[in-house]
């Protein structure tokens, strides 16, 4: 940490440690913990000057941010709370931070249900929806539509190599939705039966590009060719104001053991992991905004090219570090 920034409250440091060690995980949980930590820092601060108070809050934000800087919900929570800091005295500044953090946490608890209501409005009775991977935001749209009395069917891609589509299929069956489970390579064939493609997002860049589970981009391209609209369901904590285009996002490469079991290695003559075979297992891909029809959030639905306006409204014009004034 910069020497010019004061020490933070021990409870903030403890929250930072929990985020770093993944004791606190998941986009919404991380965001909630970050907002709570800033509120605690404000409440516990014993400095006398407004300048020192602001420095202390920025130091706390920096400590939290450096735990997992690629978790987009974390800087978004910090920006949202710090952007509301206002007042001429320490007392006023403290009150503004605590109120802003409480507002953020309140909105966060209701975000997914509101998002579901927005997404449900795009679905009609009798629609067939194709899904990819597992997304609680996407599921919330389907759940809301079912609560509205609409009958739906689902075509669920299994989503290799970890087969998260099985989770989606199981949840939809619990909800009474007829499910057709397909292998990933069959998606193009079954798009002729689909009325919508519905996916979630790991993050969304300022140009409306969608970073999501590998295979999303290919599905979106095929859907556009077939005239099937693509809806992306994502809470606003997934918006990534620091990233101008999705192609600047570093894609996580996962372990090759997710792709090749010992039996599969034997089948291709690579039991000893010898030379001549490279296994790559990217976790995500980038879907350009031209293949997305709507991004559905708790704040409403937006065409991809308009999402940058929402980012500015929520997090401000600056795309610098969250603790910067």
UniProtKB/TrEMBL annotation:
Catalytically driven reaction(s): alpha-D-ribose 1,5-bisphosphate = D-ribulose 1,5-bisphosphate
GO molecular function, a single term: ribose 1,5-bisphosphate isomerase activity
BP term (GO), one: L-methionine salvage from methylthioadenosine
Catalytic center residues: 133, 202
Keyword Isomerase among record annotations: yes
Superkingdom in the source lineage: Archaea
Swiss-Prot/TrEMBL keywords: Carbohydrate metabolism, Isomerase
Entry-linked Gene3D superfamilies: translation initiation factor eif-2b, domain 1, Translation initiation factor eif-2b, domain 2
EC main group: isomerase
Protein EC: 5.3.1.29
InterPro entries: IF-2B-related (IPR000649), IF_2B-like_C (IPR042529), Initiation_fac_2B_a/b/d (IPR011559), M1Pi_N (IPR027363), NagB/RpiA_transferase-like (IPR037171), R15Pi (IPR005250)
Residues the record lists as binding substrate: 25-28, 68, 212-213, 238
Role noted for this protein: Catalyzes the isomerization of ribose 1,5-bisphosphate (R15P) to ribulose 1,5-bisphosphate (RuBP).
Additional remarks: Reaction proceeds via a cis-phosphoenolate intermediate.
Recorded family membership: Belongs to the eIF-2B alpha/beta/delta subunits family. R15P isomerase subfamily.
Protein name (record): Ribose 1,5-bisphosphate isomerase
């Amino acid at each position: 940490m910069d020497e010019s920034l004061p020490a933070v409250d021990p409870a903030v440091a403890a929250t930072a440690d929990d985020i770093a060690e993944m004791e606190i995980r998941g986009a919404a949980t991380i965001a909630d913990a970050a907002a709570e930590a800033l509120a605690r820092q404000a409440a516990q601060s014993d400095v006398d000057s407004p300048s020192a108070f602001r420095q202390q809050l920025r130091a706390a934000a920096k400590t939290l941010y450096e735990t997992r800087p690629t978790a987009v919900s974390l800087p978004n929570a910090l920006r949202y709370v710090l952007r509301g800091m206002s007042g001429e005295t320490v007392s006023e500044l403290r009150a503004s931070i605590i109120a802003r953090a409480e507002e953020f946490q309140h909105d966060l608890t209701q975000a997914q249900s509101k998002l579901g209501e927005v997404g449900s409005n795009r679905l009609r009775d009798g629609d067939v929806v194709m899904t990819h991977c597992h997304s609680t935001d996407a599921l919330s749209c389907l759940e809301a539509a079912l609560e509205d009395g609409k009958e739906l069917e689902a075509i669920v891609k299994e989503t290799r190599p970890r087969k998260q589509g099985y989770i989606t299929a199981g949840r939809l069956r619990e909800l009474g939705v007829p499910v057709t489970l397909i292998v990933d390579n069959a998606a193009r064939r079954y798009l002729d039966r689909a009325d919508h493609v519905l996916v979630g997002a790991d993050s969304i860049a300022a140009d409306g590009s969608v970073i999501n589970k590998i295979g999303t981009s290919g599905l979106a391209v095929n859907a556009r060719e077939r005239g099937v609209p693509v809806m992306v369901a994502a809470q606003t904590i997934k918006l990534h104001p620091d990233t101008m285009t999705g192609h600047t996002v570093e894609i996580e490469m996962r372990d090759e053991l997710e792709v090749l079991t010992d039996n599969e290695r034997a089948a291709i003559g690579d039991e000893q992991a010898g030379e001549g075979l490279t296994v790559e297992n990217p976790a995500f891909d980038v879907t350009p905004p031209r293949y997305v029809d709507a991004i559905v959030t708790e704040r409403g639905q937006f065409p991809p090219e308009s999402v940058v306006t929402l980012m500015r409204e929520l997090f401000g014009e600056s795309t610098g570090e969250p603790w910067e004034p």
